[in-house]
Predict the 3D structure of the following.
Amino acid sequence: MSEFLPAASMVSDFPDLESRTVPEDHRDLRLWLRLLTCCNLIESELRTRLRTQFDTTLPRFDLMAQLLRAPEGMKMSEVSRHMMVTNGNITGITGQLEKEGLVERIPNASDGRSSLIRLTSKGKRNFRKMAQAHESWIQSMFGGLSEPSRQALFDALGELKRAQRQALADGSPLSGQA
């Protein structure tokens, strides 16, 4: 058994939102709960692996990923918008990473009242190690699916994403509601 796989008892204790449904429930509800359960299972495993192997959290990993894509740095409000969390969350995580020498604050040349945050050299090195492991973990988690199944799932989720974005653009996110 892999050191990363949760013990069978842990998996059975993990909330399976889909298991609360019955065959008479609407298929779309069952689909949503299946998707949510899969996301929760994967996210939980990623959080565990980041904590045990790198002594870090998923939000710290996500913030560092955003900063790696912006070598010149980003305003905290930009990072907050990209990560869909509050500025306060970003401020707290940035403070932790700054104390560890993984990020730095630099004056914003275009706005003297604010600063940019960016990865330090040490932060880039640390993040690249984590990102390499993260990619490997993701590959192993999807490894049980055949390539055609992975492609079909990718395509179906892309279709769902486009439909939801279109509904939001049309101003009708609840278009199915009477």
User: Anything to note?
Assistant: The longest strand covers residues 103-107. The chain is about 60% helix and 5% strand. Residues 1-9 have pLDDT under 50 and may be disordered. The beta strands are 74-75, 103-107, 115-119.
